[in-house]
Amino acid sequence: MISNHLPVYILILLLISAVTTPAIKPSSKKFRPKLVGTLTIASLLALTMFIVVWTNGPFYYNFGNWDSVIGIEFFVDEYTSLFVLAVLLISLLIIIFSLEDILHDIPKEKTPHYYTLMLLMVFSMLGMIMTNDLFNLYVFMEILSLTSCGVISIKRNKANIMASFKYLMLGTIGSVSILLGIAMLYMVTGHLNMGATSQTISSVWQMYPRNILISLSFILTGLGLKAAIFPLHVWLPDAHSAAPTPSSAILSGIVIKIYAFSMIKILFRVIGIDIIKAISINEYLTYFAVISIVMGSVFAIGQKDIKRLLAYSSVSQIGYVFLGIGIATEMGLVAGMYHIIAHAMMKSTLFLSAGAVIYRTGIRKVNEFDGLGYELPLTLGAFSIAALGMIGIPGVNGFMSKWYLGLAAFEIGKPIFIIFILISSFLNAVYFLPIVISAFLKESNRREQIMIRDDIPFTMKAPLVVLGAACIVTGLFPNIIVNVIQRALPTFMTFVF
Amino acid sequence: MANLDMILDNINYIGAFTLFIIGLYTVLTHSNLLKRVIGVNIMETAVFLFFVSIGYIKGASAPILDQITGESFYVNPLPSAMILTGIVVAVSITAYGLSLLINLYKEYGTLELDEIISKEEKAND
Hints:
The complex is a heterodimer of chains A (497) and B (125).
Chain A: H1 6-20, H2 31-56, E1 59-62, E2 73-76, H3 78-105, H4 111-130, H5 134-153, H6 158-189, H7 194-204, H8 209-227, H9 235-242, H10 245-271, H11 273-278, H12 281-301, H13 306-327, H14 330-361, H15 372-375, H16 377-391, H17 397-411, H18 416-441, H19 458-476, H20 479-492
Antiparallel strand pairs in A: 1-2
Chain B: H1 2-9, H2 11-29, H3 33-55, H4 77-108, H5 113-124
């Protein structure tokens, strides 16, 4: 049956397209349809996969029909397939946006290389989401970290190369730690398949508690480094602000979430909730998450550059995801996993609209946004929606994740987390609202004083509108995503069975 | 001399962690960027050593199926196979890092981090 092979079809399509992209001249008429077509077909396949999983339940895919213990295995559940779909759709929008915008940053003859990197990046992200094998996870992770450095350094600036180098070094430390952690897990269990590992661990963990603790701390440090949780976030502001806009959108919106989701997978599918609670590693995670939530916002307030501000806000927002993971109840996971998708939408909207402003006016400084709302109403409108979502205004999806997070915090009897969420919301308001207010209400000191339609290409307008609308739709009807998460939860919370 | 025996038995693991820490220290503290790349390489080597040691069994033969003797006491081949992938990854990271360094050297004329920072500060003033 065709549906059994869907995960591989998506991956192979992206891989082939990535490799063949440099063969087509960027000036030829086929170039853009090919790129957009690839991701559209991949999204349609992902949609089919989602429908198949939704009707028939989660399925395993064994590569080459090898036994799951020997070979590599993919596991596609409801949330995984939804996440795959979301990643593909958001990267489709980002790539449509980038068609014009990227010419601002890199010479035209280099764009095929850029898209090769982008497609490989999407490919590796999907692999990381779906894989059910620890070493396979590492391999996809390395592809992801190399390509994400590549999309930063493709713009040959001093700042870009430096940021990329920093990211490469710290990212490699992260992935080496993860590999060491995986090696230690392998030492205890003798398996790399997540299901088999989890089964073995649950029976032997009392014999090797120290080994599992060390291995987990290596893996969590590595993933935390790559997901930019607070003390380990130092590479993120440079990398995400120096990169070309579409890269920043995809890096900040999706890539760091992939690491967070891998952490969910390793904590809940490999180690298992009972062991996590027994060694109370999730509690430490919540501390770092809370520090990250507050400190990310505090740093963001001081920023003058819009992209740097958004990058610091990512540090704060990834904290919400980690807080959800750290709470480690069903509600907490719902909040964390909902926020993964919600923030992917909001942050890509914010970065893309900031990119549109830079494209049209060249303004990067936050205090020069006065009156821009008259010049770019659509762009700044999308920006405002996403900014309100970040603050947590009801009706936008950012509110719902805070709501679920609050409920989860009450559930485990730690209302102190709600105070921190509120503090962070206020801090978000402190740095986002002035931008929105000055853009729409202040007099512009530029010569265009009258209201005009956004003077940016259609390919840049459309993604902004779609993403802005998606933020509101998922904010008004969060059940679209939450239902999916709740159906997938038993695969994470094995104790439910 | 139980202690010494334990150290000798686990010498691979001890070596791996020593290398790991040496590498980490170099990456985090050295001001020369080239040496940082080398530090990352040392860290990777440490993990490879660790991984291969897991599969090693004292006195076991190489994992090649021998029809005649029917030898069945093999070293675990899986870690070694995985480390081959790991080495490929490490090489690509090193190559990419070095290519970034070439570009940095073209821009600044030096690879010392403190000199680069002072040049940046001068340029900003």
